[in-house]
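Troubleshooting: if your tokenizer reports a length mismatch, compare your output against this known-good record of 207 residues.
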Amino acid sequence: MRTSDSSHLVYIHADESCLGVQFSGQPRPGGAAGIIERFDERRGWYRRDYFVSDPDTTNQRMAIRSALEGLRALKQPCRVVFHSDSNYLIQAMTTWIFDWARRGWRRKGGPIENLQLWARLVTVAARHQIQWRWVRGHAGDPKNEYVNSLAVQAARHQKTSRGLVESGFDTWLEAQQETGRFLDFYDLPPEIEFMPHPKPPEPPTLP
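Known-good structure output:
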């Protein structure tokens, strides 16, 4: 559906980080983060951040958590445009989960990695209408750059927001623009055709 009434949409930009992946035999601290936005024609943007950390994890697990934490922070069913530069996450939620479900929640080649996290995400995602959108990472999108910085800081300092917190995006953007970055960025909601992806299948029954 074509929509110009952005007040009816929730936008989530999310990213993940895992440090030390180049070293074997050592803990790999990770972080996942996002910014949740809603636009009001009179009041402008309403924004909140979230971030979580894990002392030893993988990029894939934190990509799943970046979506899980953001979607379950929404207190009621919403129409969501979810942005991530994780091809793993976007491909899974738009294609792979349906194939996995048809096979009894198995991959063609065997068990599914991170199945418990996928089951939790599928359950939470089913409450909402979601358009999953892949964005290229580190390609000059300020909101992608911002949530990347949140995820890296969460991983590095093992910080968790414990829910939604006041967003620091405006302050971060102002500091970036003082260095000459993102000077052509206009902070307006995109005029998009909202096309939610199919509802996820029933989650697997786990022990």
